Amino acid sequence: MMRLSLFHAPKWMCARTVNSVSALGHMNGTCRFHASNKRQKVLSVDNMNPFVKNMEYAVRGPIVIRAGEIEEELKKGIKKNFKDVIRANIGDCHATGQKPLTFLRQVVALCTDPDRLMNSPDYPKDAKERAKRILNGCGGQSIGAYSDSAGVRVIREDVAKYITERDGHPSNPDDIFLCTGASDGIKTIMKLMMTGKDGAERAGVMIPIPQYPLYTATIAEYNAYPISYYLDEANAWKPHRSSFIPAKY
Ligand SMILES: Cc1ncc(COP(=O)(O)O)c(C=O)c1O
Protein backbone atom coordinates (compact mmCIF):
# COMPACT_ATOMS: atom_id res chain seq x y z
CA MET A 1 0.00 0.00 0.00
CA MET A 2 1.18 3.52 -0.67
CA ARG A 3 1.74 5.75 2.31
CA LEU A 4 0.42 9.27 2.20
CA SER A 5 1.70 12.13 4.20
CA LEU A 6 -1.18 14.24 5.33
CA PHE A 7 -0.99 17.98 5.26
CA HIS A 8 -2.74 21.04 6.61
CA ALA A 9 -4.27 23.13 3.86
CA PRO A 10 -3.26 26.77 3.71
CA LYS A 11 -6.16 29.23 3.52
CA TRP A 12 -5.79 30.01 -0.19
CA MET A 13 -6.24 26.36 -1.00
CA CYS A 14 -9.61 26.17 0.69
CA ALA A 15 -11.23 28.82 -1.52
CA ARG A 16 -12.52 26.26 -4.01
CA THR A 17 -14.08 24.09 -1.33
CA VAL A 18 -16.55 26.72 -0.18
CA ASN A 19 -19.66 27.34 -2.27
CA SER A 20 -19.66 30.64 -4.14
CA VAL A 21 -16.72 32.05 -2.24
CA SER A 22 -14.17 33.41 -4.63
CA ALA A 23 -10.49 33.09 -3.87
CA LEU A 24 -10.32 36.84 -3.34
CA GLY A 25 -13.43 37.04 -1.20
CA HIS A 26 -12.22 34.11 0.82
CA MET A 27 -9.21 36.00 2.01
CA ASN A 28 -11.45 37.89 4.41
CA GLY A 29 -13.78 34.99 5.15
CA THR A 30 -13.49 31.62 6.75
CA CYS A 31 -13.94 28.17 5.31
CA ARG A 32 -15.14 24.99 6.97
CA PHE A 33 -11.61 23.81 7.43
CA HIS A 34 -10.49 26.96 9.19
CA ALA A 35 -13.71 27.90 10.95
CA SER A 36 -12.28 26.95 14.30
CA ASN A 37 -8.82 27.70 15.57
CA LYS A 38 -8.04 24.01 15.55
CA ARG A 39 -6.65 23.22 12.11
CA GLN A 40 -7.98 19.95 10.76
CA LYS A 41 -6.54 17.70 8.13
CA VAL A 42 -8.12 18.37 4.74
CA LEU A 43 -6.87 15.25 3.02
CA SER A 44 -7.11 12.00 4.91
CA VAL A 45 -7.08 8.31 4.15
CA ASP A 46 -10.89 8.35 4.53
CA ASN A 47 -11.58 11.00 1.88
CA MET A 48 -8.69 10.46 -0.51
CA ASN A 49 -9.02 9.07 -4.04
CA PRO A 50 -10.10 5.42 -3.46
CA PHE A 51 -8.32 4.26 -6.62
CA VAL A 52 -4.98 5.43 -5.25
CA LYS A 53 -5.70 3.46 -2.08
CA ASN A 54 -6.00 0.32 -4.23
CA MET A 55 -2.54 0.78 -5.69
CA GLU A 56 0.25 -1.58 -4.76
CA TYR A 57 3.78 -1.15 -5.97
CA ALA A 58 5.40 -4.33 -4.74
CA VAL A 59 9.00 -3.59 -5.77
CA ARG A 60 8.93 -1.09 -2.93
CA GLY A 61 6.98 -3.53 -0.76
CA PRO A 62 7.71 -5.45 2.46
CA ILE A 63 11.05 -6.92 1.36
CA VAL A 64 12.47 -3.50 0.47
CA ILE A 65 11.11 -2.02 3.69
CA ARG A 66 12.76 -4.84 5.68
CA ALA A 67 16.01 -4.34 3.73
CA GLY A 68 15.99 -0.68 4.77
CA GLU A 69 15.44 -1.66 8.39
CA ILE A 70 18.35 -4.13 8.26
CA GLU A 71 20.59 -1.43 6.74
CA GLU A 72 19.69 0.90 9.60
CA GLU A 73 20.41 -1.86 12.12
CA LEU A 74 23.83 -2.49 10.55
CA LYS A 75 24.61 1.25 10.72
CA LYS A 76 23.76 1.20 14.42
CA GLY A 77 26.31 -1.60 14.87
CA ILE A 78 23.83 -4.41 15.47
CA LYS A 79 25.77 -7.60 14.76
CA LYS A 80 24.60 -9.89 11.98
CA ASN A 81 26.35 -12.66 10.12
CA PHE A 82 26.72 -10.34 7.07
CA LYS A 83 28.00 -6.79 6.61
CA ASP A 84 26.04 -5.41 3.67
CA VAL A 85 22.65 -5.58 2.06
CA ILE A 86 22.79 -5.88 -1.73
CA ARG A 87 19.55 -4.65 -3.19
CA ALA A 88 18.96 -6.94 -6.13
CA ASN A 89 15.19 -6.56 -6.30
CA ILE A 90 14.90 -4.05 -9.15
CA GLY A 91 18.15 -4.21 -11.09
CA ASP A 92 19.24 -0.91 -9.55
CA CYS A 93 22.74 -0.82 -11.10
CA HIS A 94 24.07 2.26 -9.33
CA ALA A 95 22.87 1.04 -5.94
CA THR A 96 24.86 -2.14 -6.44
CA GLY A 97 28.03 -0.19 -7.26
CA GLN A 98 28.02 0.24 -11.06
CA LYS A 99 29.73 3.50 -12.06
CA PRO A 100 27.56 6.04 -13.89
CA LEU A 101 28.48 7.10 -17.43
CA THR A 102 31.01 9.91 -17.01
CA PHE A 103 30.02 11.92 -20.10
CA LEU A 104 26.37 12.19 -19.05
CA ARG A 105 27.30 13.26 -15.53
CA GLN A 106 29.69 15.87 -16.90
CA VAL A 107 27.08 17.33 -19.25
CA VAL A 108 24.54 17.51 -16.44
CA ALA A 109 27.08 19.17 -14.12
CA LEU A 110 28.09 21.69 -16.81
CA CYS A 111 24.47 22.54 -17.61
CA THR A 112 23.71 23.04 -13.94
CA ASP A 113 26.72 25.15 -13.03
CA PRO A 114 28.11 26.63 -16.28
CA ASP A 115 29.58 29.80 -14.75
CA ARG A 116 31.94 27.80 -12.60
CA LEU A 117 32.61 24.71 -14.69
CA MET A 118 32.68 25.84 -18.34
CA ASN A 119 36.26 27.11 -17.94
CA SER A 120 37.36 24.24 -15.72
CA PRO A 121 40.23 22.10 -17.09
CA ASP A 122 38.59 19.10 -15.36
CA TYR A 123 35.85 18.91 -17.99
CA PRO A 124 36.55 17.71 -21.56
CA LYS A 125 35.76 19.69 -24.71
CA ASP A 126 33.06 17.34 -26.01
CA ALA A 127 31.07 17.55 -22.76
CA LYS A 128 31.35 21.36 -22.80
CA GLU A 129 30.16 21.53 -26.40
CA ARG A 130 27.18 19.33 -25.63
CA ALA A 131 26.30 21.42 -22.57
CA LYS A 132 26.58 24.66 -24.58
CA ARG A 133 24.27 23.26 -27.24
CA ILE A 134 21.67 22.35 -24.61
CA LEU A 135 21.98 25.67 -22.77
CA ASN A 136 21.65 27.60 -26.05
CA GLY A 137 18.36 25.76 -26.56
CA CYS A 138 17.02 26.83 -23.14
CA GLY A 139 15.28 30.13 -22.38
CA GLY A 140 17.82 32.60 -20.94
CA GLN A 141 20.45 29.89 -21.49
CA SER A 142 19.38 28.38 -18.18
CA ILE A 143 18.49 24.77 -17.60
CA GLY A 144 15.98 26.07 -15.04
CA ALA A 145 13.88 27.86 -17.68
CA TYR A 146 10.50 26.45 -18.75
CA SER A 147 10.75 24.20 -21.78
CA ASP A 148 8.16 23.24 -24.40
CA SER A 149 5.68 20.77 -22.89
CA ALA A 150 7.24 18.06 -25.04
CA GLY A 151 10.71 18.87 -23.72
CA VAL A 152 13.68 21.04 -24.74
CA ARG A 153 13.72 21.31 -28.54
CA VAL A 154 17.45 20.62 -29.08
CA ILE A 155 17.22 17.46 -26.99
CA ARG A 156 14.24 16.28 -29.04
CA GLU A 157 16.29 16.98 -32.17
CA ASP A 158 19.09 14.80 -30.82
CA VAL A 159 16.64 12.03 -29.91
CA ALA A 160 15.13 12.16 -33.40
CA LYS A 161 18.61 12.02 -34.96
CA TYR A 162 19.48 9.00 -32.82
CA ILE A 163 16.29 7.16 -33.79
CA THR A 164 16.85 7.99 -37.48
CA GLU A 165 20.39 6.58 -37.36
CA ARG A 166 19.41 3.55 -35.28
CA ASP A 167 16.31 2.55 -37.23
CA GLY A 168 17.19 3.85 -40.70
CA HIS A 169 13.83 5.61 -40.73
CA PRO A 170 13.30 9.38 -40.55
CA SER A 171 12.18 10.62 -37.15
CA ASN A 172 10.67 14.06 -36.61
CA PRO A 173 11.58 16.04 -33.43
CA ASP A 174 7.98 17.27 -33.35
CA ASP A 175 6.87 13.66 -32.82
CA ILE A 176 9.15 13.20 -29.81
CA PHE A 177 7.73 13.74 -26.31
CA LEU A 178 10.30 13.58 -23.53
CA CYS A 179 9.29 12.11 -20.19
CA THR A 180 10.88 11.57 -16.83
CA GLY A 181 11.65 7.87 -17.20
CA ALA A 182 9.69 4.87 -18.43
CA SER A 183 6.94 5.10 -15.79
CA ASP A 184 5.94 8.61 -16.80
CA GLY A 185 5.74 7.65 -20.49
CA ILE A 186 3.83 4.43 -19.82
CA LYS A 187 1.32 6.21 -17.59
CA THR A 188 0.80 8.96 -20.16
CA ILE A 189 0.03 6.41 -22.88
CA MET A 190 -2.15 4.26 -20.61
CA LYS A 191 -4.17 7.34 -19.70
CA LEU A 192 -5.10 7.69 -23.37
CA MET A 193 -6.58 4.19 -23.35
CA MET A 194 -9.01 4.79 -20.47
CA THR A 195 -12.74 4.94 -21.22
CA GLY A 196 -13.66 7.30 -18.38
CA LYS A 197 -16.52 4.92 -17.54
CA ASP A 198 -17.34 2.66 -14.61
CA GLY A 199 -18.13 -1.02 -14.06
CA ALA A 200 -18.04 -3.28 -17.09
CA GLU A 201 -17.34 -0.28 -19.31
CA ARG A 202 -13.97 0.37 -17.74
CA ALA A 203 -10.94 -0.19 -19.94
CA GLY A 204 -9.47 -3.69 -19.70
CA VAL A 205 -5.70 -3.82 -20.04
CA MET A 206 -3.94 -7.07 -20.94
CA ILE A 207 -0.80 -7.53 -18.89
CA PRO A 208 1.75 -10.35 -18.84
CA ILE A 209 2.37 -12.14 -15.56
CA PRO A 210 4.97 -11.94 -14.07
CA GLN A 211 4.80 -8.21 -14.56
CA TYR A 212 6.52 -5.09 -13.39
CA PRO A 213 4.18 -3.75 -10.66
CA LEU A 214 3.86 -0.35 -12.33
CA TYR A 215 1.25 -1.89 -14.61
CA THR A 216 -1.16 -3.27 -11.98
CA ALA A 217 -0.61 -0.15 -9.86
CA THR A 218 -1.45 2.18 -12.76
CA ILE A 219 -4.45 0.08 -13.77
CA ALA A 220 -5.75 0.39 -10.19
CA GLU A 221 -5.01 4.13 -10.11
CA TYR A 222 -6.93 4.69 -13.35
CA ASN A 223 -9.85 2.47 -12.28
CA ALA A 224 -9.23 0.12 -15.20
CA TYR A 225 -9.35 -3.67 -15.15
CA PRO A 226 -6.29 -5.95 -15.36
CA ILE A 227 -6.61 -8.88 -17.76
CA SER A 228 -3.69 -11.16 -16.98
CA TYR A 229 -2.05 -13.69 -19.26
CA TYR A 230 0.80 -15.89 -18.18
CA LEU A 231 4.33 -16.18 -19.51
CA ASP A 232 6.08 -19.53 -19.74
CA GLU A 233 9.47 -19.62 -18.01
CA ALA A 234 10.37 -22.92 -19.70
CA ASN A 235 9.82 -21.26 -23.08
CA ALA A 236 12.07 -18.19 -22.60
CA TRP A 237 9.18 -16.36 -20.90
CA LYS A 238 7.17 -16.25 -24.12
CA PRO A 239 3.39 -16.28 -23.85
CA HIS A 240 1.70 -19.33 -25.31
CA ARG A 241 -1.48 -18.89 -27.32
CA SER A 242 -3.35 -21.00 -24.75
CA SER A 243 -2.49 -18.50 -21.99
CA PHE A 244 -4.77 -15.95 -23.67
CA ILE A 245 -7.84 -18.18 -23.54
CA PRO A 246 -8.46 -17.94 -19.75
CA ALA A 247 -7.64 -14.19 -19.81
CA LYS A 248 -11.06 -12.66 -19.51
CA TYR A 249 -12.85 -9.80 -17.85
C1 LIG B 1 9.25 -3.18 -17.32
C2 LIG B 1 9.52 -1.90 -16.60
N1 LIG B 1 8.63 -0.88 -16.72
C3 LIG B 1 8.85 0.31 -16.07
C4 LIG B 1 9.97 0.50 -15.29
C5 LIG B 1 10.15 1.84 -14.58
O1 LIG B 1 11.08 2.60 -15.23
P1 LIG B 1 11.49 4.07 -14.72
O2 LIG B 1 12.26 3.86 -13.45
O3 LIG B 1 12.34 4.65 -15.83
O4 LIG B 1 10.25 4.86 -14.51
C6 LIG B 1 10.89 -0.51 -15.13
C7 LIG B 1 12.07 -0.31 -14.26
O5 LIG B 1 12.86 -1.20 -14.04
C8 LIG B 1 10.67 -1.75 -15.80
O6 LIG B 1 11.54 -2.75 -15.66
Automatic annotation (TrEMBL):
Question: Recorded GO terms, molecular function?
Answer: L-alanine:2-oxoglutarate aminotransferase activity; pyridoxal phosphate binding
**InterPro entries membership:** ALAT1/2-like, Aminotransferase_I/II_large, PyrdxlP-dep_Trfase, PyrdxlP-dep_Trfase_major, PyrdxlP-dep_Trfase_small
Pfam families linked to this entry: Aminotran_1_2
Q: Name the chemical reaction catalysed here.
A: L-alanine + 2-oxoglutarate = pyruvate + L-glutamate
- What enzyme class is recorded for this protein? transferase
Does Methyltransferase show up as a keyword for this record?
no
List the keywords (alphabetical).
Aminotransferase, Pyridoxal phosphate, Transferase
Name the needed cofactors.
pyridoxal 5'-phosphate
State the superkingdom. Eukaryota
Q: Give the EC number.
A: 2.6.1.2
- In this protein, which residues make up the domain named Aminotransferase class I/classII large? 123-238
SUPFAM superfamilies listed in its UniProt record: PLP-dependent transferases (SSF53383)
Q: In which pathway does it act?
A: Amino-acid degradation; L-alanine degradation via transaminase pathway; pyruvate from L-alanine: step 1/1
Q: How does it assemble?
A: Homodimer.
Q: Which family does it belong to?
A: Belongs to the class-I pyridoxal-phosphate-dependent aminotransferase family. Alanine aminotransferase subfamily.
The name of this protein is alanine transaminase
Tell me which species this is from. Magallana gigas
At the highest ranks, the source species' classification is: Eukaryota, Metazoa, Spiralia, Lophotrochozoa, Mollusca
